[in-house]
Amino acid sequence: MRVVSRFASHFLLALLAVACVPSEDSSSSAPAQTGAQPTPPPPPPPPPTPAAHSGSRLNPNRPMPSANPFALSDAAVARADGAPSRIPRVSLGEQRRLAAPAFKEDLRVGVKNPPQPPEAPQDQPPALPAPPPEVAKVAANPGAAEKAADKAVAPSGPPDSPITASYADTFDRAELGPEWNATNPGWRIAAGRLCGMGAKNHPVWLRRKLPVNARIEFDAVSISPDGDLKVEVWGDGKSFAKGNSYNDATSYLAIWGGWKNQFHVLARLDEHAQGRPEVKVSAGGDYKTRPVVPNTVYHFKLERSDGKTVRWFVDDIEIIAFTDPNPLKGEDHQHLGFNDWDVQVCFDNLQIFALSGG
Question: Which residues contact 142 (CB under 8 A, 6 or more apart)?
Fold first, then answer.
């Protein structure tokens, strides 16, 4: 028993000695509380650099990522570890479908469809309605209006030949042509319309002669809130105002929204004459008393069928009918003219029909 107890004591001493020996993995144990700071671990090694292509700074076989997330190459779709990317490859058509749609509502709370700023004024006059079928056929080719009119009246007649059946002009050409006499250089063809500005009562006259009884139709538009759409019928084809006041006309004058949109007038020889037939413009009245709205197309019709009564319609509403005790007829009263004082105006789709009688 003494021997066993002696060896047991030696065995316990050996175990205590082994426990006091430090472990090789000393970095995993807590440092001794001696005040010394632990040594930081070394940085990880840098990733391996791909081998450079001989003669070039970049390897052309290396996939280059695209700046466009919707246009990925096959190489860019695959990750470096070979696993597929979460972004699928898309075609060009799918790219367009992926574009963000335009918002129809303002993103601010409580604001829907905010008002848009007004568009800048356009130099070109507004679009006019399509001409009637018989005029549309003439407009198929430049200059066809004159050819069709000459064929209906006199195939080889001069520009001042009389209109015995019908006449049409859609102004689908670059120049006025020989059938028009412009007494002011401001008259021109613009975008398939006859337009003028600042003419100061110097009209552009149609050389073709009107019959005593005729129906005249056309479209007209003013670019200004001042209105002032003016046409002359049964004039001499050459006259113009000699001064600021147009009291020396040779025709009947129909003025839609004259004097800055104050009056609609059908005057005889003098647009300022006392007792002239007129309609006072009123914003709250019926159609024939309304002011001219800028950039709005109006359809004019002037007609004389009994040799003495001139009837004026706008959009098929009769504005004024005037029976003249001394009708304008004869050599000095056979022409149509478009006129203007200052604002920009345009005319289109002219048609003239000879009526029986007279």
Answer: 172, 173, 174
Locus of tokens 């790219």: 95
Look up tokens 């019709």; give the residue: 301
| pTM metric for this prediction | 0.58
Please report which helix (H) or strand (E) contains residue 261, including its range. Answer: helix 258-261
For residue 146, count CB atoms less than 10 angstroms from its CB and return exposed for 0-12, middle for 13-18, buried for 19 or more. Answer: buried
Q: How far apart are CA 229 and CA 338, in angstroms?
A: 9
266-317: pLDDT as tens digits: 999 999 999 999 999 998 888 999 999 999 999 999 999 999 999 999 999 9
Q: Kindly report the three-state secondary structure assignment for every residue of 189-225.
A: EECCEEEECCCCCCCEEECCECCCCEEEEEEEEECCC
How much of the chain, in percent, has pLDDT values that exceed 90?
Answer: 53
Six-digit token pair at 175?
């120049």
What's the average model confidence in pLDDT over 35-54?
56
Q: Which residues contact 102 (CB under 8 A, 6 or more apart)?
A: none
CB of 113 closer than 8 Å to CB of 106: yes
Most confident stretch, 90-94, 129-133, 326-330: 326-330
Rounded-to-integer distance, Cα 112 and Cα 131, Å: 40
Structure confidence at residue 11 (pLDDT): 65
As to burial, measured by CB atoms within 10 angstroms (0-12 exposed, 13-18 middle, 19+ buried), residue 85 is exposed
Nearest Cα to Cα of residue 252 among 239, 271, 238 = 271
Q: Which helix (H) or strand (E) holds 28?
A: none
For 40, residues 6+ apart whose C-beta sits below 8 A from its C-beta are none
